[in-house]
Amino acid sequence: MTTDRPDQPSFAATDSGTHGETGPHGPPRPRTGVWLLGARGSVGTTVTAGWAAVTAGLHPPTGMVTETAPFAGCGLPPLADLVIGGHDTSGCPLPKRAEALVTGGVLPHGLPAAVHAELAAVDAAIRPGGPRPGEDRTDEEMIDSFAADLAAFTTDHGLDRTVVVNVATTEPVPAPGDDRLPPSSLYAAAALRAGCPYVNFTPSAGLRHPALADAVAHRGLPHAGRDGKTGQTLLRSVLAPMFLHRALTVRAWSGTNLLGGGDGAALADPAAAAAKNAGKARVLADTLGSVPEGRVHIDDVPSLGDWKTAWDHIAFEGFLGSRMVLQTIWQGCDSALAAPLVLDLARLVAAAHATGISGPLPELGFFFKDPDPGAPSDLAEQWRALLAFADRLRGES
């Protein structure tokens, strides 16, 4: 893909030692790295393909809140100045992975060919992840290796900073007494060691593993949330406050998720499903004061691929004990819902780091099922907190 646009992204897998593009009338533009954990997965591939397509003007930034008017002038890194790399245990090249997503209806026909050069450049910046089957490295050795990859990426591309975003498949909750860090926490520890801000878009432990508590407190890096809010829980964060504010008693709230792809297979594991469901229950508990009767079931349906169906059945009680029911059905492509939010979060956290903001960012609770402590659960309140955060960035940028 070629273009004359002045904001054409600098993909530059081979521009070692440079510091952004030099404009005709000024110094080089600073650039920001986005390091995806699970870079060759469905979400990671959609993030990269979508970023390339939007930056080149092939598609509008639908779903990206940071591209809307309230976020103008906040000091967010321009999409054209992002450089993407990552870790993955898969060896499937990004262009091939993108073609598979076209077959599954996730990416539009022709897009992988249009952004093939960009996909290939990012693929060249992806490093082997871990632990792999038969892994003989210690946790410390893997953390050192991952941190070295991050440092090299930042230095080789002349980046001002690199934001690490976990978009890997959900992992099971660590077993009690397990003295090894789970993969997500190995990567999170590496981000801390390399001085990189961190975002956890999955329900996995990441930075919230107890073994990392001291390191998180002492590193002074901005970090955000756990488990991106893209579908069923997004709707719950709208509906639960509605029942609360209208003084309607919720008697039961049950749900079912049908999904395929890597997440469907991973969440067939009860331990992994438990991690996912904890965030879904939290929004109800925080909003209503307790969790109503009912459970959320997650069923693996491989034929659905990257698409999912979420069904909720809400039994509630109104005036004079009148019993009523609300049912909702959400059908969508999880990767397409997640990808714009990943780009939003990377830009917001990068801007926070640039202005010296550190620690957890409950102001970004709008994006998460399990946000940082202090975040409201009501989506409208979360939106107001996010706008206030944008104002803060605007004032400090």
Could you characterize the architecture of this molecule?
Helix content is about 40%, strand content about 15%. It is α/β, with parallel strands linked by helices and about 400 residues long. The radius of gyration is 21 Å and the shape is globular. Mean pLDDT is about 90; it is low at about 1-25. It starts with about 30 loop residues before the first strand and ends with a helix. The chain folds into 2 domains: about 30-230 and about 335-395, NAD(P)-binding Rossmann-like Domain (Rossmann fold), CATH 3.40.50.720; about 230-330, Dihydrodipicolinate Reductase, domain 2. It is built from 12 helices and 11 strands.
Name the descriptors.
single chain, 397 residues, alpha/beta, Rossmann fold, Dihydrodipicolinate Reductase, domain 2, 2 domains, seven-stranded parallel sheet, four-stranded mixed sheet, 11 strands, disordered N terminus, Myo-inos-1-P_Synthase, Myo-inos-1-P_Synthase_GAPDH, NAD(P)-bd_dom_sf, inositol-3-phosphate synthase activity
Secondary-structure element sequence?
EHEHHHEHEHEHEHEHHEEEHEH
Low-confidence runs (pLDDT<50, min 5 residues)? 1-23
* First-last Cα distance: 33 Å
Main sheet: strands, sense, barrel: 7 strands, parallel
How much β-strand is present in the residues? 15-25%
CATH fold name of the largest domain, please?
Answer: Rossmann fold
Globally, the shape reads globular
Helix content: 25-40%
Task: Tell how many strands the DSSP assignment holds.
Answer: 11
Q: What's the gist of this structure?
A:
The chain is built from twelve helices and eleven strands. With 397 residues, the chain is of the alpha/beta class.
